[in-house]
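Hi R.,

As promised on Friday, here is the backbone we talked about, encoded as structure tokens. Could you run it through your design pipeline when you get a chance and send me back a sequence?
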């Protein structure tokens, strides 16, 4: 196991989501620096998503976006969808790709907003997604992107939490005729802010423990086999083999568990003659 070459001191929503989902995956990705094969260069759809963000930034800066829009039909559709069905936006000053940072428990938390709009009474974070509206809005609310972005804005501005909101706009939802909405807005409040601070404190404390253990030669915790994140018929974590959590291992374990159940049943005495 490698030692830490440099302190991990800056944490984004991606770090927090991964750490919460599976500390061992966090270790493989950010401490062992293993290639996952899921980078932007290997995913054409993500590349297109990055181009859409670039397009929206250029638009916000008043630059000519026609050459970029012309490079791909889906970029054209998404941009057209934004022109025709934009999300509700407050009036105010627009800042694109705006970064906020704050220190917490020895770490720097960082967020880059696709768009931040501010006026005297309110501030709104906007985030562009190039996929369809997710079915579970509560998952989006609990995602660290939502929680961290709102937390950072509250911590680094004069606004009260209830003056802040975050809106996700879904480009692909806008191009589907059966879709009734293409955005989700979360309004922040003081209770949510305090809960996020507690959640962050707990997660960073777990990270401290994990990092101390890692530097002492202990691997960070894995999720349980039954968690569903390692392998399933439709999904395989890119580190499943390294974690010895491939499908075959899962099936072997399931078979062993089933055999144990059968053994247990066989050991139950059958007093049929007294019935
Ligand atoms: S295989 Fe499972 S335990 Fe290992 S990194 Fe992936 S999700 Fe975590």
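Update: got your reply. Pasting your designed sequence below so it's all in one thread:
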């Amino acid at each position: 196991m490698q030692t830490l070459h440099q302190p991990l001191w800056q944490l984004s929503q991606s770090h927090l989501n991964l750490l919460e989902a599976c500390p061992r995956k966090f270790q493989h990705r950010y401490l062992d620096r293993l290639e996952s094969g899921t980078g932007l260069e290997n995913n054409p759809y993500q590349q297109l998503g990055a181009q859409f963000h670039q397009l929206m930034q250029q638009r916000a800066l008043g630059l000519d976006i026609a050459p970029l829009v012309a490079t791909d039909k889906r970029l054209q559709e998404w941009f057209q969808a934004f022109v025709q069905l934009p999300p509700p936006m407050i009036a105010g000053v627009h800042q694109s790709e705006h970064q906020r940072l704050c220190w917490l428990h020895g770490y720097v938390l960082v967020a880059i907003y696709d768009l931040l709009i501010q006026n005297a009474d309110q501030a709104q974070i906007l985030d562009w997604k190039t996929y369809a509206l997710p079915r579970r809005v509560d998952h989006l609310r609990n995602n660290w992107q939502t929680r961290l972005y709102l937390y950072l804005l509250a911590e680094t501005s004069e606004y009260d939490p209830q003056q802040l909101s975050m809106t996700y706009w879904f480009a692909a939802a806008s191009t589907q005729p059966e879709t009734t909405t293409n955005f989700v807005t979360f309004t922040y409040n003081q209770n949510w802010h305090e809960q996020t601070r507690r959640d962050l404190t707990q997660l960073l404390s777990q990270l401290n423990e994990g990092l101390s253990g890692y530097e002492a030669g202990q691997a960070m915790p894995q999720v349980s086999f039954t968690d569903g994140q390692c392998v399933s018929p439709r999904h395989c974590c890119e580190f499943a083999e390294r974690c010895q959590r491939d499908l075959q291992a899962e099936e072997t374990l399931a078979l062993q568990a089933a055999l144990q159940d059968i053994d247990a049943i066989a050991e139950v005495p059958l007093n049929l003659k007294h019935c």
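One thing I noticed while checking it: The beta strands are 10-11, 93-104, 107-118, 123-129, 164-170, 183-187, 231-232, 235-236.

Thanks again,
M.
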